[in-house]
Structures are given as structure tokens and as C-alpha cells.
Amino acid sequence: MTVSMWSNQEEIDAFWRASVCDNPSGDSVLHLAVCKEDTELARHLLDAGYPVDSFNDDGKTPLYLAAELGLVSISSLMLLHGADIFAHSNPSNDEDQGVNRDSTSNDGDNSSSIPLEVAMDQNTDDLTILFIKHALSTRLDPSQEYTLLQVMARAFISEKQDVLEAFRDSGWDIDRNHSSYRRPFLHYVCEEAEQVDSVKRLIDSGADVTKLDMAGCSALQIASQLGRCLNGSVVKYLIDTGAKINTKDRYWRATPLIAAVQGKRLANARALLEAGSDPNAAVKRGDICRTVLHLAAQDGIPQMVKLLLDFGANPNVLDELNGSPARWAIRNNHIEAVRILLEGKLDPNFDKGHSMQMAIEMQRLEIVELFIKHGAKVEATMIHVARSSNKDSSMRLLEMCIQNLALSDEDISNRDGADQNVKVELHLGKFDIPSMMRSDMSDDYRLCALLIEHDHGENLAILHDFARGLLICICAERGFNKAVTRLLELGHINKTIRSYRVKPFGWTALHLAAYNGNMTLVNNLSSNGWDLADEDDLGRTAIHLAAYHGSFELVQRLLALYSNAEHRDKDGQTPLHYAVSSDSQVDIRLLECVVAAGCDVSKANVSGHTALHRATLFNLIDAVTWLLEKGGNVSAKDAFSNTPLHIAATFNGVPVIERLLSYGAQLNTPAIDGRTPLHCASQAGADNAVIALLDAGADPNKIDSRGHTVLATAIYWGKCKPSIIDTLLERTEIDWNAPRARHLVFIASLAVKSPNRASVLENVIQALHTSLGEKKASRIIKRLMPEMVPEILVGADDSDRGSPADIIPSLLDFLPENEETRHLLLFHMLVAIIKHGGDDDGDLTRRLLHLDDSNVSQMIPENWGFQGLCCRTLSSNYIYIMPVLRVTNSHSLLSLRQVIARNTINSRTPQILQRSTFATQGYGDNAGEPVGSKNRVPNSQATHEAEHPGPTTPAGKAKQNETGSKSPEDASAESGGSRSKDAVEKGKSPTAGSIGGKE
């Protein structure tokens, strides 16, 4: 007699250990057996004591999956082993906590949560009857009885006589009430019915529409709140047949209208209101008393709120917490509901400002704006609330409040919310600015600036110089011209005030005003002694910052006052560089006035970038044309010999490419690393630029310093479309006998992960076959395999390459004939697929096993088997491992457990070869970044470029302060590919978070 693999407890325990459910779906082996309809495997597992009701990551049991698939035999097997037909797909502790199913709201979601409901919804009557008979043969708790009555109601609605007969066989019929809740069968039908027909049939059979359950709920209340009928026809029919519209339940004293609002059933609420329901009805229990409008505002459904108001609901009523309906809408940020309430005659000051104060506390900016628009009174203490709630440094909330502030002595003295600190800062309707400036909070400094701008601050004359300098900087940043004027009019503008600088760039108020293009403020500050030649920490003057802002009038004014148009910052950049450092269209007048003032169009910064390099980086075609017309050097090279054409190719700027070529740009000029513009375009996936350059005559056979052609570069990075690869294959002279690291098959096999990686490899192999013939091509690939496959598998751990499951099938026809080498490669492939593959790689796993089934007994230390790794990493592969396991005896199982050791390979196992020099010669991590890449680390440019030469942006780019603001030089290379001026403009201000300190 054959010994069963399940007969020994030690082997069973080892199997459980190997079946840890750690795969992406969290499926156990029993789940997988159900998915594959493998009744035999399921029987083995259940007979051995495998848990029958385990949940996967989706919260589904094996029986749930069987119900979804309509599997009667395997479901029957699991029921015999104790499977629970009432196991919820998302397990909860509701029943443990005594939650009453009757009180659970239903939003009309038809999704099934237990196997019994799944079988019913799948219309698998045989399986449904099996579940029903099994359930009725057991002792039911109240929740389970409730579920069965729901299923019976669905069967009645859909007229499934076979299912109803299964209920009748156990004594259940349409006259049945819930044994504990005393809920009639009509209630369940009204809850489940989507149309009125079944309700009519039941009532015609003698069901009583006025009968109540234990909680005092009528069928009308159930249909109003929980019913699946969305057009209101069931509610209307119940009303027409005598259901009472003002029946109140025993717990909340809630009417059917309140039930409809709580259930978010708009059509039902309309039917009840049209039938005469009270729109001001309220729920009452203990101290709780809230009208139906409070409840609707809490849910925030605009149509429901408007419906109640249209039928006479009163919005100016308080609940037990002294809150109006609007307060509940504010709490849950239901902006549209608040708008409808205010337009529906809600008095914004009815609750003594509590709603407005809550909106301020919770930073509901749009709601505050709505309240102010409809006449809400802003009081002094609300400024204190806004000040303490302003956590995100946004000043809009404070500004709205201060602009509409209505201060009086009575407000200050009578308002309970004003604490001692507020009273100190408020005096005769004013705020004491010196007192508030003693705070260590930068938001308080901004609040002071706001108050001064709107003439609510006092005692400015006693401010010390540092405080005045700080406030002037804040006002310059925010554009508060009136406040700056008030602070300047105090007199005594000394060097301390004029030289006050803020982090992170050491900007004075003049720099801030220029950066924001504020002509009025620049004039005001310059007339009060601020130096136009003053540099920030990066050597930039106001002209540089105004040029970056793109303000022609301001730059013209500054040049008239300060004539040095060629002033260079510490990175060697002139105002002209900054003028073309934005991806918005440049005002050509700005360029003309800067050049007319003496700025050289061909002047390069310390990285060798001219203004033409910068303009091509941001695809500014008009600026490029103007610079070329003014004598810009089309062949200018930066520190790494990159021309403007290299940069335009990288960023797919076809119009700029065409314009540069028309002015004599050289197509095949190599950079310091040997890459031509065509290399740059192919690496970046700039498909249009590749075609444009090829059409213009670019040579695709040029090689870079690593010996790689444009085709090799495009294949490795995987960013070009397959059609571009095909074009390059046709136009490139390919050396099919090239060394391994430069061989096109090798490069395609190690390419970065992309959707087209497999098809590109197939095309390369086909091109090799076409060129050399099938026999010779096969010999070449087989020669590459022993070193190529380990490199591929090692690369699978790299995030940019990922699972090799897409490329391995293309290589299986070229396995070496040497048995040992073949065995090693297949074993490594199998490990990689199980470890890195996805749920759809089971067929590949089976294919690898069939090619060499000796891998099943490959010895690796620690007590784990193939099934363990499959369950840890890839669910579907287990099904293809199990047939191999089943044919072994119990002694084989013990050795099989040792195949995979927690995803590692022991030194005693044949090793995967070390990464070849190919990976270190330009195709490893971070090698050969696209020219002008925006993903480089800020302020690490020199190091990066030394390792990976290529077109770069000027030094000093991407200097970013600790709070997220970006300087104008950020425009050269925004992180993640963005190079927009908006990214600079929209960031936090350069003074945010550190404006309180002097630098």
C-alpha cells in the first residue's frame, strides 16, 4: 500500500509551514485549489486538517470563491468539513459586539458579502439550494436567520420556485416572521425589491402593510431607508395601500421621512413629502433632538437639502448642541449643502457665529467665503481662531477675515472666546503689533503684515529696527504695498532695516519685490535707499530676479537706474540667462532691452551654457530664433561638449531642432562621452526628435565612448516606441559578432523594464536570423546564454528591470546543449520566475519544470520547499508545482521542502555569476542618464556629471529651501521632469518657515 504524503504529522506540519500565504493575493493553497477547480487537491488538504475558512487578502474564504465560480462538488466537500456559508468577505466583529443587523444602514449596495448571497446572485440555483438546505439543518443565530430571510425574499422577488421549495421543505413560507426580531416577511421583500411587482404580489396574498417589527418599524420605514428600489415606486405603493406616513419607531422616534433621509433615498423622501410628511420632524432620544434637515446637512447631499427646504424645512433651528443644520454641513465640509442652506434663508448669524467660527477653526476656506458673502459678521476673536488654526501657513483665511473685520470695544469686552492674550493685543478696535511681534511664530509675523495692510495695527512707531526690517520683507513678499508705505513713513530708515535679509537665499526686501515683478514697490524701496547693485547669497541682483519673472517694464526701469546688464552671479549667469530660464513664452522685448544694454548673447556660464542652451532646454522657439538672429553660436559647447542640439534632442523639441539645423547646427557632433544628438533622443524616448534627426541625415551608426550605437541605446532604455526601434534596425549596420557587452541580443535581454521589452527582443532575434541564417544565429545566442542569463536574473532585483518573465520565453529555444549548464540556467530561471513573477506566470513555471524536472530535487539548505516560495511570492505557480509533488512519496516530500531557502542561494549551490562588466560600462544603475536630466540630485551636479558626462544645466540649479520654495535657477531642471516656471511660482515663498531669522 502506498504511503500517503499526509499520513505523517511531521510531514503535515512541514507542509503547513511551506504553505505560508504571503503571495500578492494572500491566497492559501486551498484557495488556489478552488480557483483551479482541483477537487482532488482540496480533498487532500481538508482530510489533512487544512483550515477551511481561511481568508485571503480580499477577505474571501475558499467557499466564497467556489460560490463565485458556481462549483457544486467542491462546495459540498468544504461544507462537509465545516465551511461557513455565512462567513463575511470582510470579517468584522459586529456580531461579537452585539450589533443589530436591523439597525445597519444599507446604501443600496448590491455586492454580496457571504457565500450564500454570492450563490444567489450568480443564479446558480443548485448551489444556492445546497447552501440553504445545509443552513436550515443547523441551528441559526438571529443574524443568520435574518440573512436567510433576505435570500428567501430575493427568491420570491425573482420567482425562483426551486429555491422557494427548498425553504418550504423546512417549514419556511411567506407568512414567516423573524423569530427574534418579529420582522414580517413583507419587510424583507420591501428591502430587497427593485421594482414594485413583487411587493404587490405579496400584499395581494394577504400581507399586512401596517404590521410592525419588534423595533416598531413598519414596512414603509424599511422600504424608505433600506429599499433597493430607487424610483420610489415601492414607497408610493405602500402609502397607497394604507401604510402610515407618520409612524415612529420605538428607539429614535423616527418617521419614514427621517428613515429615507438617513438612507439617502431621494426618490423615497420626495414621495413621502408629497404625501404630506412633516419636513420639520425630528429624532428624539434622551438629550438628542435633531430635525430631518440637520440629518440631511450631515450627509451633505445637495438635492436632499434643497428638497427639504422646498417643502418648508426650517434652516434656522438649533439642535441639542446649539448647532444649526449648517454646522453639520461645515463639520463634514459639504460646501454645496452650505451654499444651498444660505440661499434657502439660513441666517449666517443665527447661532451667534458658532457656524462661522467652526468653519474658521477647520479651515473651510470656501465655506468662510460663502458665509461672509451672505453677511456673516467677522468678530475680533475670530481672528484669534484663524490665527491658531492657520497650520499650513496659508494666509487666505486670515486675509478674508481681516478684510471683513468689524471691531469695536464691545466685541472685545463681551466676547467670551477672547482670552487674556487676545485682550492684550486688542485695544480700541486695533491690534498691538509690537506685542504680537514678540511671538516666535512666523505665522504671527504674517498676521501682523496683514493687519498693517488693512489698517488694523497700531503702535508701529515703537517697533525696533529688526522687527521693521522683517515686516517690510514679509510685505514685499506678499505684495502689501500699503503696509510697506506705512512702515517707511515712520522714518529713520537705517542700514539695519535696508540690509535685513531672509533665508534661504539672503534676499532683501528689494530682491523680493523684484522677484515678484512689483514695480511700485521697487521704486518705493529704491527711493528709500535700497541698493540696486546689492547681491544675494548666489550673487544675483534685482535685475536677475526681475528678468526671471519676465517683467519687461521692471527690467527696463532697473537698467535705467543700474546700467550693468552683464552682471554675472556666482554661477556666471547673466540676466539674459534668467530671461530664458522659464518654460513660459518669453517677452522678446525683454531680451532686446537686456542685449541693447550690453549683454552678450553668447556669454556662457560656468557650466558652459549660453542663453541658447537655456532656451533650447525649455523649448522656447521664439527665444531660440531671436538669439540665433542676434548672433547666438549654434555650435556652442558646454563643459561636456554638448551643443544646443543635444539638449533639444533630449527634450523632443522638434521645432527647435529644425530651427537649429536651419542655422547650421551639426547633426553628428559628439559630446565628451561620444554621444551624438541622436543618441540623446533615443535614450530619452524622444521619438519625434529621432525621426527628425534621421530625416535630416543623422548617422545612426555612430558609436559613443562605450561602443554603443543609437540602436543599442534605444533598445536598452526602452523608452522609444517599437516603430522607432524597427526604423533604427533598418538603418543601422549591426555587428552580430560583437563582444558580449556590445552584442545587441545581450543588450536587449538586459533592457530596462518596458511594455515592449519582449517584443523588441523578439525583433532583434528575428533580425539576427534574417541576417545570418537560423543555424548560425542560434549558435551565437547559445554562446551568449551562460553569461547572459545570470546577468538577467541578477538584474531582476533592480527596480528598473523587474521580473524577467517577459523575456525568458524568447530565450528557451537557445538553451545550451551541455547538460550541467542547461540545468543551472533553468534552475536560476525557475527561481527568478517564482520570486519575481506575477499571477499570470504559472504556465511559464510549468514549462520550466517540464524542461528539467530534476530541478525539483535541487538541494538548498533550510526546510522550505517549492510550494513555500510559491505561496510567499506567487500564488498561481503553486498549482503547477503540486502535480510534481503528488507523484512523490512522503520521503521525497521531506527533501522537496529544501529546494528554496527563503529566496536565498547557499554557497554550496551552483552560484549565479557576478554581474558582468557590461553593467559597469554604462548600462548599470544610473549609468548614462539622459542629457539634461531633471532627476539629478540638486547641488550634486558636478559629481554626477563627472561620472556620467552629458548635457547639463548651469551650476547652481535646483537649489531649494527647506520649506519647498524654488529659486529662479530651478527652472533649469525641475525634479521629475517638470521645468515650468509655475513650479517655482506655486511653491512656498522663499521666506516661508525661516523669515523670522536674520541671516
From TrEMBL:
Compositional bias (Low complexity): 100-113
- Give residue spans, biased composition: Basic and acidic residues: 979-988
Any one biological process term the GO annotation gives: proteolysis
Q: Which UniProt keywords apply?
A: ANK repeat, Repeat
Domain Peptidase A2, which positions? 305-344
Organism (species): Fusarium austroamericanum
ANK repeats at which positions?
A: 25-57, 58-90, 215-250, 288-320, 505-537, 538-570, 571-606, 607-639, 640-672, 673-705
Q: Which Gene3D superfamilies match?
A: Ankyrin repeat-containing domain
InterPro entries in the record: Ankyrin_rpt (IPR002110), Ankyrin_rpt-contain_sf (IPR036770), Peptidase_A2_cat (IPR001995)
Decide whether keyword Hydrolase is in the record: no
Q: GO molecular function of the protein, one example?
A: aspartic-type endopeptidase activity
The organism's place on the tree of life at top rank: Eukaryota
Q: What is this protein called?
A: Peptidase A2 domain-containing protein
Q: Which Pfam families match?
A: Ank, Ank_2
Region (Disordered) residue spans: 90-115, 921-999
